[in-house]
Design a protein that fits this description.
Blueprint (H helix, E strand, L loop, with lengths): L12 E2 L10 H13 L9 H21 L6 E4 L2 H13 L7 E5 L8 H4 L7 E5 L10 H7 L4 E7 L11 H10 L3 E5 L11 H4 L3 E5 L9 E5 L1 H4 L25 H18 L5 H28 L4 E4 L10 E6 L4 H10 L2 E2 L1 E3 L4 H6 L7 E5 L6 H13 L2
Helix pairs in contact: 1-9, 2-9, 9-10
The chain binds pyridoxal-5'-phosphate.
The site of pyridoxal-5'-phosphate has 12 residues, from α3.
Length: 392
């Protein structure tokens, strides 16, 4: 797959994909084509404006295929975090003092801090604690936290720190049984598994295109039936039943052109050129088949590292290829610096996952994190682990 990604030609081993993925040529070409044609705002009858309108509308259609929802349920924004704060502002206008919000202990702060803001209006935050050091979320522990006052459950599809994949559909069914809504962070999972709103049945979900081999955009699914009653902070003339109430200001059309280019790459190169969601489903089957042996291989090599302490699911079950570990007492950032000098990019620190890092007693120093994508090869992993084995 590397041949489709110009940045990979340098030979550098990009193993920090959880922080942001590289983009295929199709994404770059689509951005260039758009900007070379015209850079206009939407909504006017002249050709350049119509191009931007088409790109924006097509983005909603194809992102709905990605989420498995309707185009009328897709909000486009600058980042996942910007969108969760927008949703929290709307919720702060309908939630009441004493309402309860449950946040899983595996969350990135993007799916925690915005809901903590609701403490200002008297909402009560409860943390759904995981079992450590695996970081496993048990449904029985969630059931014990639910009450008739529970309004919201925040749960990730995959933890950006550990790679663990909790049972989102099971948690959603429990939350719905007391009338609570579920907000699902699919940012970390979406480069590895195709989101499926119909299967998870969550009420809100969000991801960032730059983690899915594309541009710096965020997308949020909002269940259609909930949209009208959500009092967003909006320009006064935008109707309450319009998604545009969650999209203040001008959006990033070149970013959308790039995202459409990336979706085209997924369907064409990995999805047997099947159309629409069928092509994406096929592409992600391919991605999973590429990544599974790499996950097994990386786990084996981590086990064999002298002094390695690994956090998260120990086998390839219920996880993606994101690995969090420390090497004895070594400072994670020093290891990251050393690896950079060896031609390998990984992360160190807490990666905004302060809840799990606190639970592990690792905050704020954190741990080393390495994360694969479908363009990762065993050679990349060998470069990483051979360098770690050589380190004194
Ligand atoms: C799991 C997870 N959720 C949310 C975010 C935030 O995404 P954004 O940078 O688009 O706000 C990240 C970013 O690293 C992430 O890994």
């Amino acid at each position: 797959m590397k041949q489709h990604f110009p940045a990979l030609a340098s030979g550098f081993s990009f193993l920090d994909n959880a922080a942001g993925a590289q983009v295929p040529q199709a994404c770059i070409t689509a951005i260039t084509n758009f900007l070379e044609s015209a850079s206009c705002n939407v909504g006017m009858p002249y050709a350049g404006s119509q191009l931007s309108t088409r790109i924006r509308d097509q983005t909603r259609v194809e992102t709905a295929q990605f989420f498995n929802c309707k185009p009328e349920e897709v909000v486009i924004g600058p980042s996942a975090t910007a969108l969760t704060f927008r949703l929290a502002t709307a919720l702060s206008r309908i939630f009441q003092a004493g309402d309860e919000i449950i946040i899983s202990e595996l969350e990135h702060e993007c799916n925690a801090s915005p809901w903590r803001e609701l403490e200002r209006i008297g909402c009560v935050i409860k943390i759904w604690q995981a079992k450590w050091t695996e970081g496993r979320l048990e449904l029985a522990d969630l059931a014990a936290l639910l009450t008739p006052r529970t309004r919201l459950l925040a749960i990730t599809a995959a933890a950006n720190s550990l790679g663990n994949r909790p049972d989102v559909a099971g948690a959603t069914a429990l939350a719905h049984s007391v009338g609570a809504w579920v907000v699902n962070d699919v940012v970390h999972d979406s480069p590895h598994h195709l989101p499926d709103i119909q299967a998870s049945n969550v009420d809100f979900a969000f991801f960032s295109a730059y983690k899915v081999f594309s541009t710096h955009l965020g997308f949020m699914y909002i269940r259609e039936a909930l949209l009208e009653a959500l009092p967003a902070q909006k320009l006064h003339f935008i109707p309450d039943d319009s998604l545009l109430k969650f999209e203040p200001g001008t959006n990033n059309y070149e970013g959308m052109a790039g995202w459409l280019g990336t979706l085209g790459y997924l369907r064409t190169e990995l999805g047997n050129s099947l159309p629409a969601r069928a092509g994406l489903i096929r592409a992600y089957e391919k991605i999973e088949s590429i990544e599974k042996p790499l996950v097994d291989y990386a786990l084996e090599r981590i086990k064999n590292l002298p002094n390695a302490i690994m956090y998260g699911e120990p086998s390839s079950q219920n996880r993606v290829g994101t690995f969090c570990f420390n090497l004895g007492q070594a400072n994670p950032l020093e290891v990251v610096k050393y690896l950079g000098e060896q031609g390998v990019g990984v992360a160190g620190g807490h990666y905004y996952a302060t809840l799990p890092m606190n639970a592990l007693g690792l905050y704020p120093t954190g741990a080393i994190r390495t994360s694969i994508a479908h363009y990762t090869t065993q050679t990349d992993l060998d470069t990483l682990f051979d360098a770690l084995e050589k380190k004194d």
